[in-house]
Amino acid sequence: MTELRPAVSMEAINTAKRERDTKQPIPKIALLLAYGGAFPFLFLSFCLWFPQNNQIPLIHDALNTYSAIILSFVGAIYWGIYISEGSERLSWHLIVSILPALVGWFALFATHFLSYFVLSAAFGIVCLYDINQTKKGYLPVWFPKLRVPITLLVILSLINAQIFILV
What we know:
Elements: H1 10-22, H2 28-47, H3 56-85, H4 91-107, H5 112-135, H6 143-166
Helix pairs in contact: 2-3, 2-6, 3-4, 3-5, 4-5, 5-6
């Protein structure tokens, strides 16, 4: 007896789907909001070099606080994944989602120099985790194309603030 085989393998279908998905553009609203959210990082780190009326401590506090808030926000993405999937097998997403918020909160109590280091590392780690989760299919394929450049801008802004402290 002959075995019936499909004309196209599942592997070929999945490969074609991945190729099609990699060409998926970043939604314009996501692009606009992400770069809009990066603006305070750039603005505040720039303001450190040109302070008005001895506002340097306020600028550092604003940059640290905004960084902690945004770090919390990027971690919260995994609450959304858990809620949308509604599966107990993804409960680890809940654990992962709270870690950036806790790191950001901790950073608020550190010196500005240490805080910028901790926040930079945390943004980088979360970005790498997002890339990993995209490869596993939990995030849209366009997400790293948006997330990586934004994360680089954020980290460079925080490094700029560290350099300001050293100078």
